[in-house]
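Example 3.2
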Amino acid sequence: MRTYQQKTAETKHDWYVVDAAGQRLGTLAVRIARALSGKHKPTWTPHIDDGDHVIVINAEKIELSGNKWDQKVYYRHSGFPGGLKIETAKQVKEKHPERLIERAVRGMLPTNRMRDVQLTRLNVYSGPAHAHAAQQPKPLA
């Protein structure tokens, strides 16, 4: 029996839609990261980009457990002295609720050249409407 190696020309990117309403952030991010990387497919190959497109709707209705809305802190730095910005999850949700999901999924993907390519296939919307009806997305199981 020979080992199967998928070719780049054999890849097929499907479209999936996920409703984030009432779901936990970490659990949802794991499911999305697996779909973006293609690990849910039997033809998964580590060095081939075989992931799917994922559309996330209702990002404003995501849930966090316990006191994480006040205790979970996001850091970013401008690169200049004194340029550290600190925001809690509640503050991020009020301004840009889709960034919570984008950042969680980014942290779940491996740190290599394919991460940015896989993240381009992630589309997050804060409301229930999305602009990808023509692709006929299926619900992500």
